[in-house]
Amino acid sequence: MTINSPAFTKVLVANRGEIACRIIRALSEMGIASVAIYHISERRARHVTMADEAFEISGDTPVAAHLDGEQIVALAVQSEAAAIHPGYGFLSENAGFARRVLAAKLAFIGPDPETIELMGDKIASRQFAATHGIPVAPSVMPTGDLAAFTAAAEKIGFPILIKASAGGGGKGMSIVRSAAEVADRAAIAASEAERYFSDNRIYAERYIDQPRHIEVQVFGDGEGGALHLYERECSIQRRFQKIVEEAPAANLPESLRAEICDAAVRLTKAARYRNAGTVEFILAPDGSFYFLEMNTRLQVEHPVTEAVTGLDLVQMQIMAAAGHPLPLKQEDITVSGHAIECRICAEDPEQDFFPETGAVLAMTPPHSSRIRLDHGLAEGQAVTSNFDSMLAKLITHGDSREAAIELSIAALQELTLLGVVTNIDYLARLIDHPDFRAGRIHTGFVTEHAADLALPSAALEDRDAAIIAAALSSREFRALAFDIPEPYASIGGWRN
User: Fold this and answer.
1) In 256-327, where do the E strands start and end?
2) Which of 103, 408, 133 is nearest to 243 (CA)?
3) Residue 470: its pLDDT value, please?
């Protein structure tokens, strides 16, 4: 869809939390009015107060409300918004939602529905990539015949990784190391795929031990033109989900960087991709790399690319959706310094990253021009199990990787978030690990170094005491926890 006007007058943000706040900030800087949506359980959330307008959405659950595309488009029309930005997650990679937005004569700030459909199907996208000369790992496609599936898996060699065709976020994924495990693991993966994506198709590919996860940020004009904004390293993961990302990738030879980025651009051009996207690759220890998937949306980790390129990806998305050509040529894009992003999650690393709930009693962000904290938190806000456990993202930008590491450790130590257990201390230990500092990283890093990264039992007791002391020393916490609210404070001493 081409918009002739310079940009939009008003945009509805079909998301919540830190990414909604991030998009609203970009809109404000561009002089564009913003519309937020919220479930009643988050009516006092930060993204609601930041937006120029806000509308309540209803549903059986908070997640169901945010997935109700018909309701969200109706609110966009009602508010006279010209476009919808889906952020990431929820409806961001839903081709049906994108079509609904366009049918309402609104702009969808993202790629075309056909592209979302093609790249959202991992089987179809792999075949498309292979057709256009992009390296793809040896794989087994589903046939409905378990014996044939197992035989094909044996042919490419174990271990293999079974994956959901419509998957993401580590759901429907399982490592299989022998033929005896195939039947059970395939059944579990198909069941998970059906539960999370309403699509039980699975496939398998050769599993590469100790791989790195390298992704390339791309932008396309929808007419066959495309460029890259270099790569990001996303190898530090737990349960197939990223927790630390950086740009550029550590210890990546320049020739290999160019080869990977070139492959990403060729795929983007072949797909006639429009707007921002990310092409993900698995990099083997021997230097060979394979197409993994293409994410047809803004990525959680986009701030590290912004830090090293000096570009605002959200504003670029908005201008692209408004019909503007790509604002730069490839040779105009350069990388300066090194950036690291840490995902702050409500989870307990000492209990196998078990999700945690609570309330934000107090938060003290670190202060530095080289530190950015993206969040959607407000003091008193409930942290529930309704949504993903990620609460915030801490991004640092240094002149070198070593400088970015030191900044990250200092920022994590300075960041205080009371009222819910988080992984803040764990991330500081992880980034300070000698192998991370040396760039000896791969997707199994967290498991391999679990013993090194665990907090000793004595330190756990010290942590609890420190949290209590910090809470009691916080004026905001004491006021929230102990002050008597009106009208009872005016009554004086009384008993019931």
Assistant:
1) 274-283, 289-295
2) 408
3) 56
What is the CATH number assigned to the segment(s) 10-109? 3.40.50.20
- In 3D space, the residue among 296, 343, 278 whose CA is nearest the CA of residue 19 turns out to be 343
- Residue among 16, 297, 372, 401 flagged as catalytic: 297
Q: 264 is written with which tokens? A: 């990403």
Residue 168 CA to residue 27 CA, distance in Å, equals 28
Domain-wise residue ranges, the chain:
10-109, 138-206, 212-453
- Confidence (pLDDT) at 466: 57
Closest CA to 232 of 278, 298, 294: 278
Residue 172 in 3-state DSSP? Answer: coil
Give the three-class secondary structure for 74: helix
* Least reliable range by pLDDT among 51-55, 264-268, 363-367: 363-367
CATH level 2 (architecture), domain 138-206:
2-Layer Sandwich (3.30)
Determine contact, residues 315/309, Cβ cutoff 8 Å: no
Give kind and range of the element (H or E) at residue 290.
strand 289-295
Superfamily classification of domain 212-453: ATP-grasp fold, B domain (3.30.470.20)
List beta partners, residue 175.
161
pLDDT score recorded for residue 495: 33
453 or 183, which is more confident? 453
Handedness of CA 148, 154, 157, 158 (dihedral sign): positive
Residue 19, pLDDT score? 98
The model's pLDDT over 28-49, given as tens digits with 9 standing for 90+, comes to: 999 999 999 999 999 999 999 9
Burial status of residue 378 (CB atoms within 10 A of its CB: 0-12, 13-18, 19 or more): middle
> Which pLDDT does position 401 carry in this prediction?
98
* Owner of token pair 């087994």: 140
Angstrom distance (rounded) from CA 396 to CA 407: 6
> Over 60: is that where the pLDDT of 316 sits?
yes
429 is catalytic: no
User: 212 - beta bridge partners?
Assistant: 283
CA pair distance 208, 33, nearest whole angstrom: 47
The average pLDDT across 436-460 equals 90
Residue at token pair 């006092």:
44
